[in-house]
Amino acid sequence: MDKHFLTPLFAPASIVAFVGHADDPGGQTPAGRTLREAFRADRFDGTLRFLDVRTKGTLEELAQTHADLALIALAPRDVAAALEIAGRIGCKAAVVLSSGIGADEAAQWRKIARREGVHLLGPNSLGFQRPLLHLNAGVAGPLAKPGPLALVAQSGALTASMLDWARQNGVGFSSVVSLGPHTSVDIPQVLDFLANDQATHSIIVYLEGIADARRFMSALRSASHAKPVVVLKAGRKPAGNEAAQTHSAAIVGSDDVFDAALRRAGAVRVRSFVELFSAAKCLASRYRPVGKRLAVVTNGGGPGVLAADWINEIGLHLGKLSPPAQKLLQPTLPPLASLNDLIDLSEEALPAHYRAAIDAASADSQVDGVLAIFSPKAGADAAATAKALADIPRPMNKPLLACWMGDSSVGKARSVLADATIPSFRTPEAAVGAFGNIAAFYQNQQLLQQTPPPLSALAKPDIEGARLIIESVLAERRHVLTEMESKSLLSSFHIPITRTLLARSASEAMMIATQLGFPVALKIDSPDIAHKSDVEGVALNVLNGTSARDTYVEMMERVARLAPEARINGVTVQKMVRARRGREIYVGMVTDQPFGPVIVFGAGGTMIELLNDRAMELPPLNQFLAHRLIERSRVAETLGEWRGAHAVNMEALEDVLLRVSEMVCELPELREMDINPIIVDESGAISVDARIVVGSTTQAVAAHVSNAVNGYQHLAIMPYPARYRREWPLPGGGTYIVRPVHPNDAQMLQALVQGLSPESRWFRFVSRFHELPPSMLSRFTLIDYDREMALVAVVMERSVSPDGTVLESEHIVGVSRYITNPDQTSCEFSLVVADEFSGKGIGSRLMESIIDVARDKGLAEIDGLVLANNPDMLKLVRRLGFTVKPFPEDPDFKLVTYML
User: Fold this and answer.
1) In this structure, what are the phi and psi dihedrals at residue 304, rounded to the nearest 5 degrees?
2) CB 3.0–4.6 Å: which of 73, 450, 462, 679 could bond 32 by disulfide?
């Protein structure tokens, strides 16, 4: 149970291969012949046996046969029989090498595999490779060179092409996995395995589509928290939406949403085949988190300017040496060297000059990374200059990239750089782009660390009132809320709106306008009109009562003529918002397939589609995420002091985004939403107009139960489950808190492990390590609350500083966790408590709490492995009602099980 469930697939000790009989051409497929040849070319480290489903006597041999993995390369008519045989001989995994298999036949094979307890990779797969195990379990080509990269691709043709390219460029792999349509083992499961694979340092993914956004985001977030993940996705063309009823739905394409999802998952997206490997190579170097400032060291002005241009083009910043650093460096360089912007060493640059400049830039706090560019010059030694870079002590604290321009004269230099594992590129633009990927990775890692709850710390919204509004609209079999209904919904979540009243006659319009005070705006109110201005249903700056009365009559006549089928409720009247120095913003929400709700931010007003300013983020949001969302928009440049206007109240704008996030989390019926425009200035933000589209959902029922874990299934990212936070008394006085873990707990968790006695550490981890490895620490603290849970027991300790100040600090003194098994009905638990807090009831409380969460999740069983010589833990689980049995696979453990 300590091994990943896909270990029998990707790290088998024994294999049976069904490839047909070599002497029967009709019984052997091309894939079968290729598989035989692959095993002849590379000797698998484990045991290998060939079986034939058509040969008599095969079934008699089954009692003596056992294997972890079955490789099946047969005609479709024989695959079902091979899967059944694989199940009988105890295979936990199988690979079906085939192509062109339809959904119905694939479903039948999945059913057999599920019945036999076999994890099935395929059909429509080229298989996989594990070079470190000398295992070529596929037909994508010769076994790749061993290396730290893992490749997962949804295209067989691209898999073979990537392997061929990598072979010619000296790129090695820890794993290569080919996935096609209708495969059972999918990308989320493979990513989950690779996140735990010690041989994999970074992951590259070629993706064409996903079926389950929640599972994909869960696995991708877990993997990219442990190691760099780079994604190349096909199909960037935006999906059209002819039925779009809001501005947001009209301007947001599915590819935009995918970008937002990757950012939030901490991964990096690239746009080309070659860039995929370049990014992975750079990210695998594991430099510390960096910013966007790239210093350029060059011996030629032209290449340096090209690099600087591309730095600006892709949103980076040119790193410039600080004046003190310039003053120290200048005397060591040639007379013509310039340090004002680029670090231009001039054509007289020698290897020592490069070394001095790179050392200065690496030590300068105003620089985040260094690009060294060399262009061939008469008398310049390309290889010696490369050697100067190679001799810089490793690891460097900042990324160092190289661009040796030219071809024949710099070949040896490129070999020197490659041997020193310095990422090297042929053009300045490619090198700058690679640094951009490093910067994007660490920026996205900051987004990944955010685990906001569904509700912010702002005043509690009227969720039940909002649901009543939506239910009344759906009861009338409508989906588009009127302006009055939309604004009422916003008010339920404390989003500031202009006061708006509905007039049903010209006289009412005149009286309401007079009461509100002039100038006012009049707008047609109809559930059937998406854009009021399209039917001349908006009138602004109405200055007196007579004009309000006449405008009402004229508007009703125009709309009746231009939209004769529309139902008209009347005309809304609202006081004009004076925005002489305010900015017009819009906040929207769209529902994507398959990622669910996405929050959109950008420039607002009547030209919203033309401006096409959109920044996106997946909910839930916190203030950090809201601020980053605003920063990514083009309109952000106008929100500070701009053309004589004061800077806007950014906190008020962020609060609107937090409120919209609350709406999205708590109201799964929301489909589309436009709040446009929002007028924001130095005094605050106010929403002038809003349009909301809702729809029925089966998830809404679960969402209405505030403590139901399944209430947020419409979100791709499960919010932080703050509802599980509880405070309990400590024996002898004091209290402790039990709450879900979050990423900021990493250092406290490490301190807990370091403070355990060797015996306690052995009982929990069955290991002698003194502290958690970084990959394990990451995996334990940033979790997907949908498929797993970790509860920590936290105590507050008080101390007094030398100046008499009372200081408080948190300490984790216990952890209980479960992770859902692949069957999605059971989970495996673990528990550890600090030695000094043993016997205080914390272990019992943590176990009871984690059992409650698993039951709330809808799981049927919780189980775990306990060392047979751990009497305290066995006593605890028996007291809680667990069944204790011997573990057949290892007599040193007991299998403990509790039915939920």
Assistant:
1) -65, -40
2) 73
